[in-house]
Fold this protein.
Amino acid sequence: MSLDPSFVGRTYPPTAPYQVGREKIREFATAIGATDPAHHDPAAARALGHPDVVAPPTFPVLITMAASQQIVDDPALGVDYSRVVHGDQRFAYTRPVVAGDELVCVNTIEEISSRSGHGFLTTRTDVTTVAGEPVVAVWSKLVVRGES
Amino acid sequence: MELSTRTFRVTRADLVRYAGASGDFNPIHWSDRTATKVGLPGVIAHGMFTMALVGRAVTEWAGAPDAVVEFGVRFTRPVVVPDDDEGTEITVDAVVKEVTETGLTRLDVTARCGGEKVLSQARATVRTAG
């Protein structure tokens, strides 16, 4: 499926703030079997210099996947979500996400290409606190599989 | 940095728990009916679950839960998880690619399931502990 390359460079309005909860971090850490006390015990996190429990490295995807619906649901771009496969995923952290963070996402379309009938869409999501402090930048490449 | 192989057993129950914790309820991760309808051999693990397990290996190697400064993978092969008590197994290995003057260690990571690589271009940069 071919996606309109003129969308490259498009930036979407900031998403509503996501409140990072201590129990959500604990639940996520438990689901992936991450037992380090800093994910569960605020005192252990404070001993490492963090204000509250620390999220595992892939936790931000919970926030960015929801935020990127902005792009996937953009009727002008016209992504068929039933044909979407996750291609690449990358995170560049300024600091780890911690409980108590209020995070805002700004989505940008970085790349659009097509090859062998499939469309490729790379998005960058800049995750910052509501005060504008950068936390993590997240890149996702989605493959929109062509009709076979 | 001691980079001993990490092994993770993955069962259907793990996928259900990850679906709930992550909010990714795509039925290909819990319904054989849906998975086979879209041409998969059966229910597959969330790519982000596999990446999360690799993240565990990386933070354990680094010796700190907050050590990762960059982390990226390409999903190349699905991890099929059978509906039994054994599930499947993912093994994660890494080699040190570079140690920078600023105290960063770059790792090239390999994740395998059933002898096949399930990720490519899996790389992590960690702040070296101590």
Q: What stands out?
A: The first strand of chain B starts at residue 6 and ends at 10. Chain B has a mean pLDDT of 95. Residues 80 and 91 of chain B are 14 Å apart (CA to CA).
